UniProtKB/TrEMBL annotation, chains A, B:
<dbReference type="Pfam" id="PF07687">
    <property type="entry name" value="M20_dimer"/>
</dbReference>
<dbReference type="GO" id="GO:0046872">
    <property type="term" value="F:metal ion binding"/>
</dbReference>
<dbReference type="InterPro" id="IPR051458">
    <property type="entry name" value="Cyt/Met_Dipeptidase"/>
</dbReference>
<keyword id="KW-0479">Metal-binding</keyword>
<keyword id="KW-0378">Hydrolase</keyword>
<protein>
    <submittedName>
        <fullName>Peptidase M20</fullName>
    </submittedName>
</protein>
<dbReference type="GO" id="GO:0006508">
    <property type="term" value="P:proteolysis"/>
</dbReference>
<dbReference type="InterPro" id="IPR002933">
    <property type="entry name" value="Peptidase_M20"/>
</dbReference>
<dbReference type="GO" id="GO:0008233">
    <property type="term" value="F:peptidase activity"/>
</dbReference>
<feature type="domain" description="Peptidase M20 dimerisation">
    <location>
        <begin position="193"/>
        <end position="350"/>
    </location>
</feature>
<dbReference type="InterPro" id="IPR011650">
    <property type="entry name" value="Peptidase_M20_dimer"/>
</dbReference>
<keyword id="KW-0645">Protease</keyword>
<dbReference type="Pfam" id="PF01546">
    <property type="entry name" value="Peptidase_M20"/>
</dbReference>
């Protein structure tokens, strides 16, 4: 019988090597070209779950990428923890901005650099290794179920169907997800909310072909110019989103909630230095923490049109495009917001162009309770590992499927994340601290133990 | 002794084959990757000039792409015509919109489809073949000089130096350029003005790296959103350009000039149908013909930033870019306008981003006289070929170097263009009518004859 600390001590090398192997798969879900790599990743995870001691391990096919399932049921008298994670990753481009190849994990200053290191391979794999420890040291205090999917970065299109079709098999008492950040290694925190998401792609069409900008310029609407005007109009001069009805369902935080939130350590100068900006930006009347944690946002994720190659081309383009996503806060509804955007965008487009709005994917916002047994168990486990009580925070990110879990499986979620905001998620040089990885593995068994105790 | 019509009759096939060979070179000047093809094109033209009977043929190196020179001086008592053209072409993308490959000339419905067919390979090569006829049939009525360059589509960066260094060698009585359009095969026309050009590339930088749009969105300025706001602000609600001082040097046309201009046949419904648009667009208070022919314009030629690949990526980009060009009218100055743009764009950028404005290239506007010997000679030559008197028009395009020719060589220019606005210049499926090509070859010897006569 080893303690988790002893076990990590003696298996650290292997834990890292296995994660590196997992990180070498370019499991990019946004681009169909990586389908084969995605499938290999799923098989790899299934293999590792079996080695760790899971039963009924299965790579479940879906209309999209497969879902890896595995479980260990030791007693019907014990509570059951469902671990959710995702093995798919964001695209790696722009590649030229990576200091080392995105799919060749490299360690610098104690950090693992690779696409997916923190989001989410490094984080869900902590649970596989913690489970391995609990199995080999007779320390598994709850039943456990794993559901690791491959489409989180593209909206979990097929996970909903899978969950609805497997409610029995997925029955549990709490869903644990390690796919979020904490404040720092000195100040652990637990996220208590996730923003929802509404993601659309817009296409603005002017003339039926690219035109010579000298022969036609000035007399025919330029779709790139019109797209710029449309996007510019989506935020007013106070950076409020100018889509009618957009804020209708938003619940304003109470002053108490705001105060609690703004107590989290945040140094605006450090923040600006880290990002290399002279000024922050955002909705008038809200602090930076409130802007990301509690307010809905609208961001242009990509824009393109006309000639974007080397040198100069005097063309009046036929089309211009943008990818636009909106983050939603509790009580907003993804489908309603998508429709509001579509109606508004089509309405404000001038008659000299035609516009198309294509919804990509969405997800509902969630709030996790801070008075639940699961939250308290997570709190105590983190306090043991970090010798400091974690504080509740509101993250700005989204895990679109969580709201559906809660609806379909009737349980709440605990966001037991060990990443840091500075991990460059979705950016070049994504990283995850080796210390974060090992601390996570150390914390998880304690969570299981406390959750079993407090559930009695 | 054959007439030009007989000569065309018996050499038509070869005239087309030679043009096709010329069109097969992907001589794209905007992209350094095509440097070798550009040089091969220059050698090909030099060869053809020699075959046609030119002396002192030379491929003159420059800091950029070479200039092909050739001449035939028959007598100092005869006037000298300098033929200017360019063998470089615009990039061909978006390739997927071409019905047949851009560098594999294909004939459909009597049109030659290929990049450069009309702009300008098909048009300058008419002069080479007309020259060949005049040489072989003892019909050369003027001395002739050819100057065919390879950087017109990127601003003729090195032609100015060449002209200044060769003023003696380039001495002439008129410069003839076939690189513009006429109204139709039923209604020939002569362009009497060219717009100037100011071309810039702008870069907007927000955070020092791409960010997760959930973690940072709403709290950090998105450079794509800011770029959209900046571009949107460059035209006011009447589509006037909102750069202070932009219109200072613009001379308003007299009502007489406007009336003359608006007499040119123009059917707004046909125009809209051809372009597939429901409405035209442009500066309030001006007709479509005035907007392209007599007013300065500002067009977005390209815009890009963030994730533009397949699917969805929730990123807040670090940078966004745009290529923007302005067409200038007589009395505006390219350098002054570029500086006004730069100052204005940098001034209106908010402190949450940094902007860079990089000038690409420019050129000055010109007006060609309608009372000159050369214009009258062109008028008579066109009337002979088309059995209809050509009418003067104001084209919207630019040939940046023309103003410099007039300054350095002290002569005026005749814009003897045989293209049509519908030739898809700078667009996919660029084309040039076989009839236009042959009519051009037929017209040119008559121009030489009339120019010699009227110059006596």
């Amino acid at each position: 019988m080893q303690t988790i600390k002893e076990y990590i001590e003696s298996n650290q090398e292997r834990f890292l090597e296995e994660l590196f192997a997992l990180l070498r798969f370019p499991s990019i879900s946004a681009d169909p070209a990586y389908k084969k790599d995605v499938e290999k990743t799923a098989d790899f995870i299934a293999e590792k779950l079996k080695e760790a001691g899971a039963d009924k391990v299965e790579v479940c096919p879906t209309a999209g990428n497969p879902i890896v399932y595995g479980e260990k049921i030791i007693s019907n008298d014990l509570p059951t923890v469902l671990v959710y994670g995702h093995y798919d990753v964001q695209p790696a481009d722009p590649l030229e901005l990576w200091d080392t190849p995105p799919f060749e994990p490299t360690v610098r200053d104690g950090k693992i650099y690779a696409r997916g290191a923190a989001d989410d391979k490094g984080q869900f794999y902590m649970h596989v290794k913690a489970f391995e420890y609990m199995m080999r040291n007779d320390a598994l205090a709850c039943n456990i179920k794993f559901m690791i999917e491959g489409e989180e970065e593209v909206g979990s299109a097929n996970l909903g169907t899978f969950v609805k079709a497997n409610t029995e098999r997925l029955q549990n008492d709490v869903i644990v997800i390690s796919d979020t950040s904490m404040i720092s290694m000195e100040q652990p925190s637990l996220e208590t909310g996730l923003r929802g998401l509404s993601y659309v792609e817009v296409e603005v069409t002017g003339p039926n072909r690219d035109l010579h900008s000298g022969v036609y310029g000035g007399a025919v609407a330029n779709p790139a110019t019109i797209l710029a005007k449309l996007i510019a109009s989506l935020h007013d001069e106070n950076n409020h989103i100018a889509i009618p009805g957009f804020y209708d369902d938003v619940i304003e935080l109470s002053d108490e909630e705001k105060d609690a939130l703004n107590k989290a350590p945040f140094d605006i100068e450090e923040y600006k230095d880290d990002l290399g900006i002279a000024d922050v930006w955002g909705e008038k009347g809200y602090s930076s923490i409130e802007r990301t944690g509690t307010r809905p946002t609208l961001e242009v994720n990509g824009i393109w049109g006309g000639y974007i190659g080397e040198g100069a081309k005097t063309v009046l383009p036929s089309k211009a495009f943008a990818k636009i996503s909106m983050r939603l806060v509790p009580n907003q509804n993804s489908e309603r917001i998508t429709n509001l955007f579509k109606e508004h965008f089509e309405k404000i487009a001038p008659s000299c162009v035609t516009v198309k709005v294509k919804p990509h994917h969405g997800g509902e916002p969630v709030v996790t309770p801070t008075d639940s047994v699961a939250y308290k168990a997570a709190e105590k486990a983190l306090e043991d590992a970090f010798n400091k009580k974690p504080i509740p925070t509101r993250g700005g990110g989204s895990i679109p499927i969580v709201a559906l879990f809660e609806k379909e499986l009737g349980v709440k979620t605990v966001l037991l994340g060990f990443g840091l905001d500075s991990d460059n998620l979705h950016s070049p040089n994504e990283k995850y601290g080796i210390e974060n990885y090992l601390k996570g593995i150390e914390t998880i068994p304690a969570f299981f133990r406390y959750f079993a105790e407090l559930s009695k």
